[in-house]
Amino acid sequence: MANRTVKEAPTIKGTNPQYLIEKIIRSRIYDSRYWKEDCFALTAELVVDKAVELKCIGGVCGANIRPAPFLCLVLKMLQICPEKDIIVEFIKNEEFKYVRALGAFYMRLVGTSVEIYKYLEPLYNDYRKMKYLNKNDKYELLYMDEFIDQLLREERVLEVQLPRLQRRNVLEENNQLEPRQSVLDEDIDDNESSAESEEEEEKKPKKKETISEKPKKKWKDLDKPSRSPSPRYARSVSPREKNSKKRRRSRSRSRSKSRSPARDSRKKHSSRHEHRDKKDRNRGHDREKEKRRRD
User: What is the enclosing helix (H) or strand (E) of 161?
Assistant: First the structure.
């Protein structure tokens, strides 16, 4: 009785909603501890609380084919068959990523092709990280956009065979869907426009540089008298000028000799020696005078 589908539940794909999951996996879920303890007597409102508590996504793991809590909640939702508005709220929930993943997986099983493309394609812009429990009972890193891409492209996800999905181009030809507009296209357009503006800005200063590099015209003053041409050969030097040049050279040499530091140092040394000699002479005279007095 606890594993039966609700009487008011509609048929999906012409069968009972629980039959979308294979019989072997269903039996494993019914025998699992999580199904018996946490999924018993759940309603559409209480499923939200259990979905918030999820810490990973996964199908069947381990050697004993143990079902993950994520897959147990999916089967419980197929058993309850909540309203479409509740599933849409699951998908639009941005705070809890595992609630969004649960709603997306349930929509992929139950929804029509138009509804699947309409509600799942916007989730390509969600790049959050999720924990994925693989068959070997080990955790892997999986992004939300990768998970959505698997739901839209692959036939089997989390060990569950997905219903067949109609191609998008066929729906576009039948005017059931509008052409998809990706966020990356807008970024590419923005980059192209920014690149064009940068090229235009680079061209503008180049023009200014070329204008500044042009040589300026030299204006001639026609009223100013022209300079007389210089003689071809230099004028010969007179004997008076030669004598005056020699005198200047001799004076400059004498000045440089007088200013030479070697001579100054010699003078200083000689003056010191003369001063010492005078002191010695005076001392000698004083000694002689003392001797004479004693005598």
Answer: strand 160-161
